[in-house]
Amino acid sequence: MANLKKVGIVLSSSVLSLGMFSSIANASPTVSEQPERVQIQVASSETMFTKNDLIKKFHSVFPKQFDFLTSNDFHMSGSHIYPDDERVRYDLSFSKTIKGKQFHGNIGFVGEDLEIEQFYYQPPSGADALFPAKVSKEEAGKIADSFVKKFLNGEGYQQEANPFNYFPQQIITEPIRYSFSFARTKNQVSIADQRIEVSVLGNGEIVSFYRNPVKADANTYDDVKGIKDENEIVKKVKENLSVELQYQVNTDYQTGDRRVELVYQPSTKLQGIHASSGKWLTANGYSASFPEKTKIEKIVANPLPPKQDGITLKEAKEIAAQFLSIKSDKVKLSVQSIDERENYNGQAVISIQYMYEYANGGSGTHLEINKDTGEIIQYYDITSQILEDIGEKPDKGNTFTQKEALAKAVKYAKEYAPSYLHNYAMPVEEPYFEERTGAYHFSFPRIVDGIVVMGDQISIGVSADGSLSSFNVNYQEVENWPSSDKVISEEDAKAILKKNLSVKLTYMKQGNNEKNHHYDLVYLPVFNEEPFSFLDANTGEWNSLYERGNTTVISHPWAEEELNYLINANVLDVKDAKKFNGDAPISKGEAIKMIMSSLTYIYAGRYYYENENTNQTFDNIDAKHPLYQAIERAVEMGIIKPDNQSFDIDTPVKREELAAWYIRALGLEQAAKQSNIYKLEIADANKVRTEYTGYVALATSLGLLKTEQNHFNPDREATYAELAVSIIRLAHEMSERGRSLSY
To answer: 525, 242 in Cβ contact below 8 A?
Structure first.
């Protein structure tokens, strides 16, 4: 390969997700985070391919689809390698505006064959991709399957039957998107880390994919002959199964609200069972005995005093200067900015943005300090990569053992965040060991009433020379912890887990040694087929960490499809399907909520305070009101007018008023105000109030609201069914006009 010149780095996070997964192998929420994967930029003079080479390869994968793009529409944004994979990666992006509509996307290539690793395309939102979609999910699956086999050399890949794809609420002005997962197989067995993800729009257009580029010819695989029977493995797991009671903190990332639940989960020390030998797969390799549960041991028995009793911005800068110092005359530390804010855990912090500047580039990130205690909250070391980048490869000295590294991690915890430590315990899981650098990454779980808290831990990375590589305190403020007095017994929990136990045969590599090219055949225990599910310790029932959308189904003579679509999209909330009446009048408050939830994303909570409304337009709708954000957003967009001191949310909305809201959403307010230029061609034109004439004329001419026997019925109360059907029409009209509401 080319002689690479490293000119800078970009950091991208790669961490383990939280929550109880269906497979033991992925179950642990307390397992240490994997380290940041570092991109090392390659000098343009050293790259092997030109922009035209990349464009040619791109067109070969998408023949004719992007012929409307010229060479000038593409931009080659650079190339990079990873320390653990020296194949060069190239980045190409494109953008073009045609008739006011913007097209843009990006493509990532890897290796000497320019294999496309990832692709993302954002086309103008065409009406044929909106609800109701032009192609069904089944048809889209066939399109994805054909694409993988024809253009991605995916003959060895099989589409998974029920992949889990979590997407939060989607507004209806965005296209329908189907996502599919493909797993590469060997001997008809899926390979854990060789996958392709493909997304197809509702019009059948491929808009994204990602695959793990693995050198398949360098790998070896266990023989499927001689493996143990699946039933034998299931029996073995049941006989050795152990369960753990834990707190699970679930966060609604649209509102910022936290919900704490007590859950039972199987022992996370078990990752799988070797299919041939029957040995238990743990973080330390294979073992003949089932891994024992680690005894919980607090880091410190009693609370320690904080580092300081509050700090100023000036003091924070001084702490940063000392903490971030680097031993090199070729590198200069530059503090870019310091600001005080509230972090996602609700703590007052001082965030310090900084850069390490050197001759051929610069790299930076941020340091977070607790404002009230002067303690480190978040830190990631990038100095090692920088010193290597400028030719001063640091002397790592003697590699620390795991025991020595743990002692160092505890020392750093006491030095940098002492006041938190009485809430946390020594690691109950094995650390993540970074083979390439020799670094250990430990996770110290939070303990409440002797129970581990999932997703709340202090994460500390210790480099091979004992220096601090990362530090993160994820302390979450929770007022009330649920009592464990009424939880079901461990035996009952164990019985439920056994009843829902199955195993899946998979090829996977042991550990994370980059030089290991052998795949073992492993049985992965699976509890309850629903991904991200957990066992409620109080009820003994399975719940899901992420809801896949409302499964309520209602019937209606002419608006059934639209109503059910809005229910599934979490736009319409129906508590009882049997009692729901689609022909019932809808109140102004509920109508505004549905309209705004359909057309724009609405968030609440501290995560979004900087972007969300904080003013109060109406006396009766304050910041604590459940309709506050929807009402304020509607006022901001000009959909409703603040003509009165209060907004009557409970009064049914009339059809002429609904027409006005729709026309304002389309941005046609000024045209509609010219009421004298419109002549209503409806039988009940005399019933339309003068100020609504233009709105009704435009709404009917655009087909948003239909007439019945040439009667518009302007003073009739709009129904749920009417709003459901008409809001879909509005979404299509907004798409055609390229109209979107700001987030």
So the answer is: no
Query: Measured between alpha carbons, how far is 590 from 630 in angstroms, rounded to an integer?
Result: 10
pLDDT of residue 154: 67
Residue (of 420, 321, 421, 312) closest to 367 by Cα position: 321
Distance CA 39, CA 81 (A): 6
Q: How many folded domains does the chain comprise?
A: 3
Asked if 190 and 325 sit in the same domain, the reply is no
> Which residue has tokens 């070969």?
60
Residues 298 and 440 in one domain: yes
What would the DSSP string read from start to end of 682-726?
Answer: STTGGGS-GGGHHHHHHHHHTTSS--BTTB--TTSBPBHHHHHHH
- Mean local confidence (pLDDT), 84-105: 82
- The answer to whether residues 62 and 52 touch, using CB atoms and an 8 Å cutoff, is no
**Averaged pLDDT for residues 202-222:** 83
Question: Which region among 121-135, 554-568, 690-704 has the lowest average model confidence (pLDDT)?
Answer: 121-135
The DSSP element (H or E) to which 41 belongs, if any, is strand 37-42
344 and 448 inside one domain: yes
Decide if 423 is inside a domain.
yes
pLDDT band of residue 192 (cuts 50, 70, 90) is confident
* Residue 94: domain span: 47-213
In three-state secondary structure terms, 317 is: helix
Instruction: Kindly give, in sequence order, each residue whose CB lies less than 8 Å from that of residue 322, ignoring residues fewer than 6 positions away.
Output: none
Within this chain, do residues 171 and 273 fall inside the same structural domain, yes or no? no
Are 664 and 699 contacting, i.e. CB atoms less than 8 angstroms apart? no
* CA-CA-CA-CA torsion sign (419, 421, 422, 423): positive
pLDDT of residue 666: 93
> How far is the C-alpha of 202 from the C-alpha of 173, rounded, in Å?
12
Name the 3-class secondary structure at 140: helix
Domain boundary among 183, 213, 243: 213
What does the angle CA 395 – CA 398 – CA 401 come to, to the nearest 5 degrees?
Answer: 135
Q: Are the beta carbons of 180 and 144 closer than 8 angstroms? A: yes
Answer whether residue 5 is part of any domain. Answer: no
Establish if 574 belongs to a structural domain.
yes
Distance, CA of 85 to CA of 608 (rounded, Å): 38
**Residue of 513, 103, 85 whose CA lies nearest to 285:** 513
Query: What kind and span of H or E run contains 237?
Result: helix 230-240
One-letter amino acid for residue 548 of the chain: R
Residues with Cβ within 8 Å of 455's Cβ and at least 6 positions away in sequence, in order, are 18, 19, 29, 248, 249, 474, 476
Whether 291 and 208 map to the same domain: the answer is no
Query: 728 with 589: CB under 8 angstroms?
Result: no
Q: Which residues pair with 508 in a beta bridge?
A: 520
Six token digits for residue 43? 């000098």
pLDDT tens-place string over residues 675-693: 889 889 999 999 999 999 9
Strands (E), 566-650: none
Pair (529, 568) in one structural domain: no
Interatomic CA distance for residues 129 and 132, integer angstroms: 8
Asked if residue 20 lies in contact with residue 533, where contact means CB atoms within 8 angstroms, the answer is: yes
Among 179, 213, 247, which residue terminates a domain? 213
Which residue bears the tokens 């320690």? 304
Dist CA 92 CA 107 (whole Å) = 5
Secondary structure (3-state) at 646 = coil
Token match 């310091």: residue?
338
Model confidence over 309-334: pLDDT tens digits? 988 999 988 888 888 888 877 888 88
Distance of CA 427 to the CA centre of its chain: 26
* 55 belongs to a structural domain: yes
User: Among all chains, which residue has been given the structure tokens 């078990």?
Assistant: 270
State which amino acid sits at residue 703.
G
d(CA 705, CA 733): 12
pTM: 0.76
ω into residue 35 within 30 of 0, thus cis?
A: no
Residues 243 and 146 in one domain: no
* Token pair for 149: 């086999």
One domain, residues 207 and 336: no
